[in-house]
Design a protein that fits this description.
This is PspA/IM30 family protein. Belongs to the PspA/Vipp/IM30 family. Residues 246-260 have a biased composition (Basic and acidic residues). InterPro entries: PspA_VIPP1 (IPR007157). α2 (25-80) packs antiparallel against α3. This protein folds into 2 domains: 3-161; 170-218. It is mainly alpha-helical and 260 residues long. The protein contains 5 helices and no strands. The protein has helices spanning 3-22, 25-80, 84-161, 163-220, 241-259.
């Protein structure tokens, strides 16, 4: 392999790489549609020109064919008048026009085939352009979606490794820890309150029982006799009612304690 071939290949490879990197899919799609529309305009002009030529050839063919028929009629007229030479001249002219008509007919057939082919190509190109426009819109939408997805992935990757995202995650962890501590404190306070209320309820039961006992003693005091070994004062009427009631309660309590 020669040196110039290697250099040429390197240059072409680099140029192809530059062109590939410079290609914007959206712009290329738009330019492709523009190019196809320009081809469509040129094809329409070619079809119009071919149709015009075909019509011109058709007119010439009709004229030559008419002239051939006219010379045929003149030859018959001359022959009917007995002028054979004139009839022969008319037939020569008719032959010349017939040959021209045959040549024009061949050209006309070729032009008709060409026009039909151009028309089919025109219809096919119009269909392809319409389809290309539809695909262009779809491809542009897909390109936009792909770019958006790429930007999103890039942003997610960037934020997941950035200091801002790390700080955000640390603050979130602190908030979660603070909430956990608050919940724990609330549970501890709730347990303490439950214990306090339990103590109060227990104390309330003792007080209720003591009050009930006092009520029972107070209600049965008038029917109780004095304990042995005690001297009941005959002057109870002169003592205060509250002291007498207390003494009775005390005596009754002592009696109950002895019976236990």
């Amino acid at each position: 392999m020669g040196l110039f071939d290697r250099i040429s290949r390197v240059v072409r490879a680099n140029l192809n790489d530059v062109v590939s990197k410079a290609e914007d899919p959206e712009k290329i799609l738009e330019q492709s549609i523009i190019d196809m529309q320009e081809d469509l305009v040129q094809l329409r002009q070619a079809v119009a020109q071919a149709i015009a030529t075909q019509k011109r050839t058709q007119q010439q063919y009709n004229q030559v064919l008419t002239e051939a028929n006219n010379w045929q009629q003149r030859a018959q007229l001359a022959l009917s008048k007995g002028d054979e030479n004139l009839a022969r001249e008319a037939l020569v002219r008719k032959k010349s026009q017939s040959e021209a008509a045959a040549a024009l007919k061949t050209s006309l057939d070729q032009q008709t085939t060409t026009v039909d082919t151009l028309k089919r190509n025109l219809i096919a190109l119009e269909s392809k352009i319409s389809e290309a426009k539809t695909k262009k819109d779809m491809l542009k939408a897909r390109i936009s979606a792909a770019k958006a997805q790429e930007q999103l992935q890039s942003a997610v990757g960037k934020y997941s490794t950035s200091g801002a995202m790390g700080a955000f995650e640390r603050m979130e962890e602190k908030v979660l820890m603070a909430e956990a501590r608050a919940q724990s404190t609330q549970e501890l306070v709730g347990n303490d309150l439950d214990q306090q209320f339990a103590d109060l309820e227990a104390g309330s039961d003792v007080d209720d029982e003591l009050a009930q006992m006092k009520a029972q003693l107070t209600g049965s005091a008038p029917n109780q006799a004095a304990l042995p070994g005690t001297t009941q004062s005959t002057t109870t009427s002169t003592s205060s009612p509250s002291s007498s009631a207390v003494d009775k309660d005390l005596e009754e309590l002592k009696r109950q304690m002895d019976q236990l």
